[in-house]
Amino acid sequence: MTLQERQMYVTIIKKLYGTSIYVDESQITDEVVGIVETILKEIRNCTKSLGIFISIVQGLADALQATGEALPKEIIEDMLKDQDLEWIRNMRKNFTEAFVESFVTTWINILTGAQQSTTCVNGAKLNWKSALAIALLGI
């Protein structure tokens, strides 16, 4: 795994947990990546059944367009409905680390801005916080 890929996961973990979990690039292992992917899959599964899913897709499309990374809404919707556990790794095959990082952090920003989807984010974070903290310690 490249340094840029490790930094991307660090950014995603910090976006999810803030300073409540310490993380740096040297701690990113396959186990940590697997846990992060699981957290994001749980969030995707929860939010796609919400009535606000289409507005989440639109918000993400608008935000990405503002950063110069425009994608059609259909592609964004397909990406958010993806059931693959290696979501980030698969996105990384088609996009740069910077795009994937921007996509995921923007998506989390949108989710945490809506009360319904905040429940999805917080539930997944809580379910995996201990496992992630232990994996980051290498235990």
Characterization of this structure:
- With 139 residues, the protein is mainly α.
- The chain has one domain.
- Helices cover 75% and strands 0% of the residues.
- It is built from 7 helices and no strands.
- Helix 2 runs antiparallel to helix 7 and helix 3 packs across helix 4.
- The chain is globular, with a radius of gyration of 14 Å.
- The two termini are 20 Å apart.
- The mean pLDDT is 88.
Q: Which percent band covers the strand fraction? A: under 5%
Mean pLDDT: 88
Number of domains: 1
Number of helices: 7
Give the strand tally: 0
Report the C-alpha radius of gyration, rounded: 14 Å
**Helical residue percent band:** over 70%
Which structural class best describes the helix and strand composition? mainly alpha
Query: Shape, please?
Result: globular
- Terminal residue distance: 20 Å
How does the major sheet shape up? none
Low-confidence stretches: none
